[in-house]
Amino acid sequence: MIGLVLAALSFGERDIPLGRVLAAFLPGSEALDRMVVVEWRAPRALGAAVFGACLGVSGALFQTLTRNPLGSPDIIGLNTGAYTGVLAVIWLGGTGYAAFAAGAVTGGLLTAALVYLLAYSAGLQGFRLIIVGIAVSAFLSSANTWFVVKANADEALRAAVWGAGTLNGIRWPQVLSAGAAAIVVACVLPWLARRISQLELGEDAARVRGVPAEPVKAILVLVGVAFTSLVTAVTGPIAFIALAAPHISRRIRRRTSGFDAVGAALTGAVLLVGGDLIAQHALPSSSLPVGAVTVCLGGAYLIWLLFTEDRRS
To answer: Class for domain 2-312, per CATH?
Structure first.
């Protein structure tokens, strides 16, 4: 992780040796190095780590809820719903992180509520939640496409650039605001983890121990939506990090089950920082949106995951 961050700070259109990268954070450093490293590259690298961690934890929460490795915000449709919320803000003329964050959180929560209500039948079943989420995601994707087609040129350009999922233009105010919000949301995780461990024994056993299953599941959904929306408000929808990070973390740590927020967060951070490095340097003359890279890598991972799950079953 540290090596990837240092590489992100060092390499770019203007490669800077590691010694000068570290010196750029000290008083009296060269002005150009300081501007490139501290003002441009550092918020992007740190933002990638923070946003990747948020997506990883969100994926772990939803995979725990659904008890299915395919249970993640991008599969269930929460990313798409958050994107719809931001498109509504763009259509209303809103700008800035605060407006986008409000739109993303609102869109994500409304989508989660819709999926939850449609999937609820004498309790919340994981597989049913995934199927309903895929259907809602398809509907919202078509609505998002319709908006981009019907919008004026300026709105369509803003929506298309933001919707690709990119870390371009990330600055310190966005990273610090999102990071502070993520820390506040993360304060719920220790309380939630204890109740999740009880739910994994079975809902009846959890009730005997005083853990109400449905309220805990609802809180789990809210926390997962909050983490996803914080990221989507800044970067746009970035797919497959939430899907892959918890699964990879469990394999690395040789865990077959259980909610592992720390492992999922670290793995998500590594995946997004590494994916952004690939996005910046894959083409010699231009950079790609990191969302395009994660879709390519995640698509291959999803095929592999489906293949291995099929063999296991």
So the answer is: mainly alpha
